[in-house]
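Reopening this one. Same input as before:
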Amino acid sequence: MATSFVRRGLKLGGQAAVMVALILGLVAFVGTNKSVVLKVDGESSDILTFGGTVEDVLEKADIQLAAADLVVPAPGTEVQDGTTIEVITAKTVDVNVDGTGHTIQTTGATVADLVSELRVSTKSSLSASLDTSLTKLTGLSISTPKSVLVVADGKTTQVETTAGTVRELLQETGTELAPADRISVPVRADITDGMVLKVTRVLTGSQDTVTEAVPYETRSVEDPELFEGEKNVTAAGVPGERTLVFNMVILDGREVSRSLASETLNVAPVAETVAVGTKKRPAPAAPAGGTAPAGGTWAALAQCESGGNWHINSGNGYYGGLQFSTQSWIGAGGGAYAPVASGATPEQQIAVAENLRANGGWGHWPSCARKLGLL
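Same output, byte for byte:
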């Protein structure tokens, strides 16, 4: 019976030892276990872990990280009881900045976060509002402010704009284009910083009416009653009148070209008729030794006018045997022989005198003509 009691005591002691070991293990487990909050893209879960690093926790939670993902605290950080681990996975967004496309990996939540990350001007024009979630965004267009010089209607204006194209800039500035107007850059062209946009106003359809004289023609008619070299206007010419209408092209208020649209003859011109002598002149008397022709009316007249010296230049403005003024000499055709009468032969001087006499008679030599009884 004593032996049975001993055996029973040993059995109870062994069980007690196992219980103590279990209790000590449980205490050790409870003492080393930590509660961690894991938040992935805003969704939280509680995780119990024996410790280690953030990277260990993520690995045990089967979370794969991409290079652009954000983890707070850093993967190598030792976790403590109550540690919150936040994982923000990067999103891919197609972004077009001033016409140039980019693919962006971002951990931002909204368009505002992405704009801040890209460091573009806050005055930029965006295709989506700043509070738009990136998870709902398929693409984003950004137009940054640009400085453009607009020259139009006689004014030069410096404009800061986020317009994407020239057409949008014209709408933004209230610059309207007529169908014929010209611009220095096509309306579909993208706006660039420093661009100069010149608008040229083209005015078509304007007309200019001009009234002008129409010159008359001169017709010559042979007259056998006049000596050769003599002319007489028998019918005066009268200018006509016509009206011309021109189509004009005007650029920025300045005429650059014109074309004749119509021509109307209001008054027809009247031609001038001139009688031209064909009668042969009588041969002058033969000169004697280069002096005045012997005898005859012209010799007597020369004797009275110049003492019969057909080559005299007395310095009083009259020349030759019959004392021509330069005006009378040239007007009667003497220029064909010599600049002044004293340089011509007596025969040539008499021929010119005949022209004068045919238009005014002997009155061209009033004093001597009276002395000779010619007047």
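So the earlier flakiness isn't reproducible anymore. For the record, Residues 1-14, 20-31, 284-294 have pLDDT under 50 and may be disordered.
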